[in-house]
Design goal:
292 residues; alpha/beta; Nucleotidyltransferase, domain 5; 2 domains; 9 helices; 8 strands; binds zinc ion
Length: 292
């Protein structure tokens, strides 16, 4: 399923070559009124021939637009990077290293690294603005992902993903190594505003929330298949998100290590948080660089 209407023809019209991509990166990060940090001259930079850099016309100070971005140190052409991001926006279930290798004509190692960096970029662009607030509902739940052994709870090598999802709003996920009350509740207090109504399952780790003066806590009984409680409490949305995340990992990537899981959850978050504005997906990636 296509997530944006931008076609491959549109893409190559906007970014016909590496120079256009580098100019775009310079424009987004520095703009045409950038002040030279060495001599103070404003907006007088020109592209250096044979270098991926710009130079101040007055003092000759250099700006390297790729520095401080996911492209830093990469020898892969910038246009391939941009095109890889375009491919990410065209897929509902992520893009595997194999697929990138095939589409870009690079080695698997390079393709895997690019995919990883693009996911990191997505997570950074997405950020983690606090959720909830007075009158808002945030569902909190956790799931086990990966690992080489079977077993629903605590299976060896499995990583835990805790998710916090605001009804009608955004999601924040965290990869954790345990389900201790201290760990799970700290993530909530770090990311959920006070005054929020929080829905969780009956995991004892969340019990402390019931005594919280900051939040209203409602529990959902999973075991009894009571997915929507008598007062409308539910964790259905966060469970739907986890199901999609697991399908993506299993279907596209087959297996991911606990060490790298955060980048896949970061990607899922980035996409989920733009579900109602799919046109933002590619734009946010192509314009979401640290300012120079
Ligand atoms: Zn200068």
């Amino acid at each position: 399923m296509l997530m944006t209407k931008q076609t491959v023809r549109d893409f190559f019209k906007q970014f016909p070559d590496d120079d256009t991509c580098l100019q775009h990166l310079f424009d987004v990060r520095y703009g045409d009124s950038h002040e030279c940090k060495k001599c103070g001259t404003i907006g007088k930079f020109h592209r250096l021939k044979d270098h991926k850099a710009f130079s101040c016309q007055k003092c000759g100070d250099h700006i390297h637009p790729m520095a401080g971005t996911i492209y830093e140190g990469s020898t892969t052409p910038l246009q391939l990077w941009f095109y890889a991001m375009f491919l990410f926006t065209k897929s509902r279930n992520g893009v595997s290293g194999k697929e990138l290798q095939r589409q870009l004509g690079v080695t698997y190692k390079t393709a895997w690294r690019m995919g990883h960096k693009i996911r990191e970029h997505m997570a950074r662009v997405d950020g983690d603005a606090p959720l909830g607030g007075s009158g808002k509902i945030v569902e909190v739940d956790e799931t086990y992902i990966g690992g080489r052994k079977k077993g629903a709870y605590g299976g060896k090598g499995k990583a835990i993903v805790q998710g916090m999802l605001e009804h009608g709003g955004e999601i924040i996920t965290h990869v954790t190594t345990d389900t201790k009350s201290k760990t799970l509740i700290k993530n909530i207090t770090d990311h959920v505003k006070s005054g929020t109504e929080i829905h969780t399952d009956e995991l004892p780790a969340y019990s402390r929330l019931s005594y919280s003066t900051e939040y209203t806590h409602k529990k959902v009984n999973h075991a009894g298949k009571q997915y929507v409680g008598p007062k409308g409490e539910t964790t259905n949305s966060i469970e739907g998100f986890f199901m999609h995340l697991k399908r993506t990992i299993k279907g596209t990537h087959i297996w991911v290590s606990a060490k790298h899981l955060h980048s896949y959850t970061g990607e899922a978050e980035f996409i989920y948080n733009r579900r109602n504005e799919p046109h933002r997906i590619l734009n946010d990636l192509l314009y979401g660089y640290p300012k120079g």
